[in-house]
Amino acid sequence: MKLPNSMKKWIIFCLMAAACGAGTLGLYTMKPSEKIQIKQPGSPRQVTVRQVTPAERRSVIRVYGEVTARWTSVLRTQVGGRIITINDALQPGQRLCKGDTLLQVDPTDYQAGLARARMELAAAQEELIRAEQEANQARANWKRAGIKEPPASPLVFHLPQVKSAQAKADLARKNMDKARNDLDQTRITAPYDCLVAECFVNKGETLFSGDRLLTVLSADNLEISVTLDEAQTHTLGQWEKAAAVLQNPATGKTWTGKVVRDGQMMDKKTRLRRFYLIPLGKRDGLVPGMFVIADLQGSENEPLLALPESALTRDGLVWLVDQENRLKTLAAQPVFYEKGQVFIKAQKNQGPLQVVVTPTPSFIAGTQVSPVIQDGGELR
Predict the structure, then answer these.
(1) Pairing relation of β-strands 254-266 and 81-86?
(2) Which of 38, 46, 329, 365 is most buried, by CB atoms within 10 Å?
(3) Are residues 233 and 252 located together in one domain of the fold?
(4) For residue 307, what is the domain's CATH number?
C-alpha cells in the first residue's frame, strides 16, 4: 500500500525529533573524564630597577674635535736663482728650529747688485754735498753784495738743485736697502719651530721669485676646535673658566687643556658654535690631524640624575616604576656621558626614582610590574 506524501513527511519529522531528544539526554547524563582547568591571571612581570637620587655636580660636555696646528705657512722664495745648497731635513715629517737654513740661492748677482747700489748712493751723496756747497756760496755772495731784497727766484740760492740732489740720495739709499734685502733673501730660513708638511724643491733647481718651497706647521703650537649647540653652550657657561680633558679614542691616552677663545658666530648650516682649546703641559702623542674626545666642564653645579646608559632608549625616554609599581615614562635630554652612565637634568625637589635598567620595546605605560632592585645599590 502506497503512503501519501504528507504521511511520509510526518514520519520523518518524528524520527528526527526522537533522535535529537536521545542525543540531548545522553549529553546531560554523561560524566566528564577530567575537570576543566580554568587559567588564572599571571603574576606581574619582574623588571630590574636602580634607585637613583639627584645630586649636585658640574656638567661635562663631551664633544669631538680635530687637532690642528695654529700656524700653517707656505714658504715662497722672494728672489730667483739656482739652488746651491739645500738642507737634507727638508722632508715631510722632519722638525726644524727657528733660524735653521733651509736652502741657499746663488748670491753672486745679488752681491753685485748691492755693490752697484752702494756706488750709486755714494755718487748721489757727492752730488748732494756739491749742491749744498753751491747753495751756501750763493747765500754768502748775496750777503757780501749788500743786497737787502730777497732774490726773485729760488734758483739764485740753488734751492731746487739741493732738493733734487737730496731726492736722488734718498732713492739711492732705498735702492741699497732693497739690494741688501735681496741678498739676505738668498738664504732662506725657518720662520719658527716647525714641522715640514710638504716640500716642493730639489737640489740644483732654478727658482723664480714667488715659487713655493715648503709647507710647514707649528708642531708645538696646537689647538683643537670643537662645535657646540645652543644647549651645550648654555651648559658650558663662562667658557674662560672651562677646563678640558682630551682623550685619544683609539688608545685612551689623555691630556689636559683649556678653552682659549670663542668663535663668536654660528655656522649657517649646522647652527653650531665653535670654540677653540689648547693643550696644557706635556703633549707627547698629540699631533696635527688627530681626532680627540674633549670633555668640557661646565662652570656651574646643577642637579643631575646618573643613569645606566642602557636605561635611555633610542627615543630619548627613561622608564620608571612608580609607587604603585606601574610603568611610566620620563622624557630625558642627556647632558653628558661618563663611565657607562648618562647624566640627565633633574626636576626641582625631585626625590629618589626607580629606573628600569634595561627597558624593552614591549613596555606599555601603566602596566603592573614587580620591581627587583639591581645589585650595586643606589646611583648618584
Answers:
(1) unpaired
(2) 329
(3) yes
(4) 2.40.420
